[in-house]
Amino acid sequence: MLVLPGEEIPNQGLKPGPGTYRVGGKVYASVLGFLSPRPPFVQVIPLSGRYIPKPNDVVVGTVTDVQSTFWLLDIGAPRWAPLHMTGTPWKVDVGETERFLKVGDAVVVQVENLDATGRIGVTMNGEGLGKLEGGTIVTITAARIARVVGRSGSMIQTITRHTGARVAVGQNGRIWVDGAPEAIRRVSAVLHMIDEDGQRPGLTERVESYLLATMPTGPTGPTVPRTEPRDEPAPRGAVATDDDDEADEDGPDESGSDSDSN
Amino acid sequence: MGSVGAKEVPVLLTPDGRRIDGRTLDELRPIRIEAGALHQADGSAFVEWGANKVMAAVYGPREVHPRHLQQNNKAVIQCRYNMAAFSVDERKRPGLDRRSQEISKVIAEAFESVVFAEEYPRTSIDIYIEVLQANAGTRCAGLVAASVALADAGIPMVDLLPAVAVGKVGGAIALDLRKEEDNYGEADLPMALVPQSGRLVLLQMEGHMTEEELARSLDLGVQGCRTIYEKMKAALRERYAVGPPAGGAA
Question: Under an 8 A CB cutoff, do A118 and B122 touch?
Fold first, then answer.
């Protein structure tokens, strides 16, 4: 059930959880989102807004500042996240940080810890983490990432299969996409489609029909058979499979939060 | 939007209680609210209210600029109200002036009393209000737009913040003044209401009223705010509408 800030929540003896507050024995919603009773608490799962980091989330960020021992990353969260030089797979000397990452570089990192003041610790040590070369970053609402991944990564697999693009999905709503210009354009269109009406049912069907309708019929010339251009990006497709595995890891815990919203 | 032109005071109230645009004393101008009108911002809204057109964008919580404004126990709420040069008949000189600074301040303070700023220490919530076309009551239209934009941005708060102005025109208390009524009327009283608690978090007045008229104005304004509140909620529901209940996994 959709609730808005200030709306009273029928309180069957439940305590106010995240996204709610209590005044004079009544519980009200404080954010726009779906009501989710989770006895003994009742909470509201936000449908919009900035990315709120959780430990172990894999996120896509960009470097906004370089210091002598760390970089500051914009991961779309309320605060910039420091990435310390020891949190990288490289041997970085003090003062040498800029040789590895410059302002504007894109990276995949993992949220390690959060403290009460909102400081976000991230690391680049781990599988699938590192600096991103080439490609482009598409930003959507962080709350919609579960839809992009789909159940056990089904949606992201559909997207990579039909486009041959390489994709890295960050839980912060930023998705890195690389491949042929046409593939990037189609993936980007699909991602915005999911962002706009990811809440409506039949999303997978709509995405698939869009991808089939925009399938290139021979961009290199009319003589090229229909299937040929599909073979061309095959090596990229193979790389995309690696990324699919990564998406799979995100899958289960995301489908977990899916069922929460029910 | 036609020019007022007339130097003499227009007839603001007919003997049968109709106003210059045919409204009754307790009637609002038509309002249309669109939530999520912009893509770049974390939250946004567009409000058309009578001949007013106002856009609001919300960014944040995000890093504070300039850094020294940062507060280590809560988010700072910064607001910029601005009127476009083309928003009024006679070109408005662009940029900050005393009036827009004052309005920015009172709007930021109104939101400070409803937003749960403690949840995001050392950050900033930035509210931008751009008036594209003005016809009196732009601070209220701006507040309404900003409030819907804040909800659209997922900012936790006590409630939405409907706002409206009440005034005195032709000797009578009237809801939601339009430009001629504001210019030639006797008083203008903008207010913003927290519907959940019934508190007013913005109340300003220009002109003169008796104590009894003030009391009636407040009642009328609160009633107007409640009507606007429903329109704000409807706009947000429309934006986040889903097919089946509970939004099921598609």
Answer: yes
Q: What is the rounded distance in angstroms from the CA atom of residue A154 to the CA atom of residue A148?
A: 9
Q: Which domains does chain B have, with CATH numbers?
A: 31-239 (3.30.230.70)
Give residue A109's Cα distance to chain centre.
12
Residues A32 and A99 placed together within one structural domain of the fold: no
Residues A152, A237 share a domain: yes
Same domain, A167 and A209: yes
Establish if A223 touches chain B: CB-CB under 8 angstroms. no
Whether residue A223 is contained in a domain is answered as yes
| ipTM tops the 0.85 cut | yes
User: How many domains are contained in chain A?
Assistant: 3
Find the closest chain A residue to B118 by CA distance: A117
Interface membership of A32 toward B (CB under 8 Å): yes
- List the single residue in A1, A32, A202 with the smallest CB-CB distance to B250: A202
Identify the band that residue A218 occupies on the pLDDT scale cut at 50, 70 and 90: low
Nearest-neighbour CA in chain B from A123: distance (Å): 20
Domain residues for the domain of A40 are: 2-46
Contacts of A23 in chain B (CB under 8 A): 196-197
Given an 8 Å threshold on Cβ–Cβ distance, is A50 in contact with B195? no
The residues, any chain, with a CB within 8 Å of residue B211's CB and separated by 6 or more, are none
Same domain, A141 and A219: yes
Taking CA atoms, A88 is separated from A107, A120, A121, in Å, by: 11, 16, 13
Terminal CA-to-CA distance of chain A, rounded, Å?
A: 9
Do A125 and A141 share a domain, yes or no?
A: no
Q: Are residues A229 and A162 in the same domain?
A: yes
Shortest CB distance from A31 goes to which of B156, B244, B246? B156
Query: Do residues A37 and A71 both lie within one domain?
Result: no
Chains A and B form CB pairs within 8 A to the count of 119
| Chain segment A108-129, per-residue pLDDT in tens | 999 999 988 889 999 999 999 9
Instruction: Please judge whether A78 and B151 are an interchain contact, meaning their C-beta atoms are less than 8 angstroms apart.
Output: no
Tell me how far apart the alpha carbons of residues B21 and B3 are, in angstroms, rounded to a whole number: 15
CB interface of B with A, residues 34-93, below 8 Å: 42-43, 60-63, 72, 75
Tens of pLDDT, residue by residue over A171-202, are: 999 999 999 999 999 999 999 999 987 777 88
Amino acid (one-letter) located at A150: G
A51 within some domain: no
- Separation between Cα atoms, residue A73 and residue A101, nearest integer Å: 11
A75 in any annotated domain:
yes
